[in-house]
Design goal:
Blueprint (H helix, E strand, L loop, with lengths): L6 E4 L3 H13 L3 E5 L13 E3 L3 H11 L3 H8 E7 L9 E6 L1 H13 L4 E5 L2 E7 L2 E7 L4 E3 L2 E4 L8 E4 L2 E4 L11 H7 L4 E8 L2 E3 L9 E3 L23 E5 L2 H9 L22 H7 L7 E6 L6 E5 L7 H8 L10 E3 L2 E8 L16 E3 L9 H19 L13 H12 L23 H12 L4 H23 L1 E2 L1 H10 L9 E2 H5 L6 H11 L15 H12 L1 H18 L17 H10 L4 H5 L6 H10 L3
Parallel strand pairs: 1-2, 1-10, 2-6, 10-21
Antiparallel strand pairs: 3-5, 4-5, 7-8, 8-9, 11-12, 11-20, 13-20, 14-18, 14-19, 15-16, 16-17, 17-18, 22-23
Helix pairs in contact: 1-9, 2-9, 2-11, 3-4, 6-8, 11-12, 12-16
């Protein structure tokens, strides 16, 4: 057995798994250290992947050659594409997963990855020499040496669990916390603060009256997470179910607020604004008489269900009494109550956009230790950190994604530029170029980058080139083929569109709201007469290809305008601030700007312009100093 590796990844959650897989796949000898090898990639809270904006991140991870998308497809027991009623920039895939199968699939991936090894233990200390990380020490007294460390400890750093007045150390239910690392990392220059998150009760489905619920079935069309067409599974697909709280539930919860750790001073850290506990909901939205809850299966076969929307740290007896007031859950047996957890995180403005520490060479931080919440945000960071750890060791260029390239780029830029004052969750509204960052085109944006990195393999390259060839075939056909009124007017009238008065290109018809690419191709196939010329009819009917092409055409004007805006912003991203060493000496800018710029040390004018407290006039002064 060897004790010297290129890269050591601490923690085998979603960030750690992506980091370790990426680094090893690129050729670095990688050691993944985890407390429990049976809970690799554990879905600590909701057994689901994706959702609003989060689904786009998973598609991006997959497009780059990461793993979360394929593992999700292999373990999915329900798939839905959210926000279909809105434009394609808002469409977001979401998959309910079999929790156990998700872990098994990730473990298989890691076991089959060359250069990747696993060690079950707890890291207690980083070894640092001359400002660079050189290895780690563990609770078992083992010392491993390395050239880079990726810290992805999740909620385990000084984790503290709460159920009512009862509280105990832990990183997850029934799992120990890690109590040694925070103090050392703070001493290295990374300020630490506390955050809080929580999870709901788990319920035995045999004790739920499903007749009192609203069933929510999954979708069975072509949509999925991975761009690889063969990623499927044979798991039993299951429905979710909707129930609602009511005034009686709220009365029970309201009466118990003095016993709530959130309201009696027991918990002082900041919780997620966009995933509040049920007790926070009844306080914040006191006028509401009901809140929607989702009963979600934890697997294809298990009776265990997750009550989405009922996160709570109230005493166990209060949780049970409140649930009994919901008709469908009147006789519910719970496996365990919901709980809250407080944990340490580090100020992410002390990281470079590569997620490398500004204070210790070779040290990378990814996931909830950077103040984020969610599996998807963690996994995206893990992939970036793993690639950059490898690239640093082998003296390769840094890997970063811009805000107009990926939601992952928006996420990391927000973290390292603005910092966090509450658990960070990705939303489509955070991306100013979201019309460019759609879930359908993640492969067109990022697979060429993944191929250049070496993260995307030849199999993915083949499918990507095939897809692009088919899109080009469709583009050629729709750009050149002209239809006559008598060919399409019956169809146009059937979809409430004005009939043609003269011939026009197919491409011009696609821009009409109710006209679809698939239907037009069927109309042309039935109607055209090619005796007088050679008519090229594309042979593709692959729905993902057709959808990607149709979105590109229908929204061409918006997309082009967004690209022009992004290009203008890129001009600021190309102006380096490396020549400015002392912001405190620039008295022409505000005091707040001097303080923020000195602390964050932005790499470019573009990044500086996004720092809260740095005004446009401050940016103008910097541009003048740079001679621009």
């Amino acid at each position: 057995m060897k004790f010297n590796y290129d890269i050591i990844v601490i923690g085998a959650g979603h960030a750690g798994c992506e980091a370790a897989h990426a680094a090893a796949k690129l050729g670095s000898s990688t050691l993944l250290i985890t407390m429990d090898m049976n809970k690799i990639a554990q879905m600590s809270c909701n057994p689901a992947v994706g959702g609003i904006a989060k689904g786009q991140i998973v598609r991006e991870i997959d497009a780059l050659g990461g793993t979360m998308g394929t593992v999700t497809d292999r373990s999915s027991i329900q798939f839905r594409l959210l926000n279909r009623s809105k434009g394609p920039a808002m469409w977001s895939p979401r998959s309910q997963c079999d929790r156990t199968e998700f872990i098994r699939q990730w473990r298989n991936v890691l076991d089959e990855t060359d250069n990747l090894y696993i060690w079950q233990d707890t890291v207690t200390r980083l070894n640092i020499s001359d400002g660079r990380v050189t290895g780690v020490e563990t609770a078992l007294g083992v010392a491993f040496s390395c050239q880079a460390v990726v810290l992805t400890a999740g909620t385990f750093l000084n984790g503290l669990l709460h159920v009512g007045q009862v509280h105990w150390p832990g990183g997850r239910i029934s799992e120990p916390a890690s109590n040694q690392l925070t103090q050392q990392i703070v001493a290295l220059g990374h300020p630490s603060e506390r955050m809080k998150t929580g999870t709901p009760v788990r319920i035995d489905s045999r004790t739920i009256d499903f007749a009192q619920t609203v069933e929510q079935k999954g979708e069975t069309d072509f949509h999925r997470f991975s761009f690889l067409p063969f990623e499927r599974n044979n798991l039993t697909q299951r429905s979710c179910y909707i129930v609602y709280t009511n005034p009686a539930v709220h009365d029970v919860l309201r009466d118990a607020l003095p016993r709530s750790p959130l309201y009696n001073g027991q918990i002082t850290s900041i919780g997620p604004r966009y995933c509040p506990s049920i007790e926070s909901k009844i306080v914040t939205f006191a006028d509401k008489t009901e809140h929607q809850l989702f009963i979600e299966p934890e697997g294809a076969q298990t009776n265990e269900c997750y009550l989405n929307g009922f996160s709570s740290s109230l005493p166990w007896d209060v949780q049970i009494e409140a649930l009994s007031k919901i008709p469908a859950l009147r006789n519910a047996h719970i496996y365990r109550p919901g709980y809250a957890i407080e944990y340490d995180f580090f100020d992410p403005t002390h990281l470079y956009p590569t997620l490398r520490s500004k204070h210790v060479d070779g040290l990378y931080l990814a996931g909830q230790v950077n103040g984020t919440t969610g599996y998807e945000e963690a996994a995206g960071q893990g992939l970036v950190a793993g690639v950059n750890a490898h690239n640093e060791i082998y003296h390769l260029p840094e890997f970063t994604l811009s805000r107009d390239q990926a939601y992952i780029g928006v996420l990391i830029d927000d973290l390292v530029t603005k910092g966090v004052d509450e658990p960070y969750r990705m939303f489509t509204s955070r991306a100013e170029h979201r019309i460019l960052l759609r879930q359908d085109n993640a492969d067109q944006r990022l697979t060429p980058i993944g191929l250049k990195l070496g993260l995307a393999d030849t199999c993915r390259e083949g499918y990507f080139r095939h897809k692009m060839h088919q899109i080009e075939s469709l583009r050629k056909f729709f750009d050149t083929y002209t239809v006559k009124p008598d060919m399409v007017n019956d169809y146009l009238q059937s979809v409430n569109e004005s009939p043609l008065r003269q011939s026009c290109r197919l491409r011009d018809l696609i821009t009409r709201p109710n006209v679809t690419c698939k239907a037009l191709m069927e109309v042309v196939a039935r109607s055209f007469d090619d005796e007088n010329g050679n008519v090229f009819m594309p042979d593709t009917d692959e729905p993902d290809v057709v959808e990607a092409f149709e979105i590109e055409v229908k929204y061409a004007g918006y997309i082009e305008r967004e690209k022009l805006l992004a290009d203008k912003i890129h001009r600021l991203e190309d102006i380096s601030l490396s020549s400015i060493s002392d912001y405190e000496a620039i008295h022409q800018i505000s005091t707040e700007a001097r303080q923020k710029l000195s602390r964050i040390r932005p790499a470019t004018i573009g990044q500086a312009s996004r720092i809260p407290g740095v005004s446009p006039s401050d940016i103008q002064v910097l541009l003048l100093l740079l001679g621009r």
